[in-house]
Amino acid sequence: MNFTHVLGLLQEASIYDLYRLKVALQNEMENPAKIFEVRQHFTEGDQICYFNAVTNTLAQARVLEKKQKYVLVQDLKDHQTWKVPYYMINLSGKSSDIDPQHREKLTRNHLKVGEFAGFKYDGKQYIGVIEKLNLKTVQLKTRTNRCYRVPYGLLFKVIEGQGFDSESHSPALLDFMKNLIS
Description:
With 182 residues, this protein is of the alpha+beta class. It folds into 2 domains: 3-88, Roll (SH3 type barrels), CATH 2.30.30.140; 108-181, SH3 type barrels (Roll), CATH 2.30.30.140. 22% of the residues lie in helices and 31% in strands. It is built from 4 helices and 9 strands; from the N terminus they run αααβββββββββα. It has helices at residues 3-10, 15-29, 32-39, 173-181; strands spanning 47-52, 57-66, 70-75, 81-85, 116-121, 124-133, 137-142, 147-151, 156-157. The strands form 2 sheets. It has a 5-stranded antiparallel sheet with strand order 8-7-6-5-9, covered by helices on one side. Strands 1-2-3-4 form a 4-stranded antiparallel sheet, with no helix packed on it. A hairpin with a 3-residue loop joins strand 2 and strand 3 (70-75). The two termini are 30 Å apart.
C-alpha cells in the first residue's frame, strides 16, 4: 500500500469523513479473523517489527508472550517491555514512510524521531536531530546541543551529505548526529 498516495487522497476529506473512516478502520483492526491471521505468523521468541506511533518509526522486538488482543514484546533498542496490539505488527516488512509531495509542507506523518531536519531563521540555517514529535512542533537538537521547538511547516528534511550547520560550519555534523541517535 502506498501510504503517501492514500494520505494525499485524504487531504480532500471532511473531518466527518475522516472520523467515519477511523471507526471503520478500528473495526477492521480489531477483527478477530485478521488478528488470528497475524497470530499464525510468529511464535514466542521470534523477532518482529512493529510501528511505533510515538517515534513514527518501525521498531524491532522479541515476542515474549501472545495474548488475545496484543503481544507482549521486548523492544530490541531500549529493552523495555511493551504491549503491542496485533494491528501494529508489520509482517511483510513494508516501508511505513510517508513522503511529502513536491513543494508540500512537512507534517508529523512525514518525519521520524532520530531523523535529520533543519529550518531557517534570521538568515541562518539550523540542522539537527528530531528528538520528539509534538502535536504542532518538532523538538530539534543541534550539534551544539541547543534545542528548538519548530513548527512542522518551517522544517525541511536533511539528506545525508548536507552536513553543514550555520552554527558551526562543521563537516562532522553527521557523525555527531549519528552519535546522538545511538
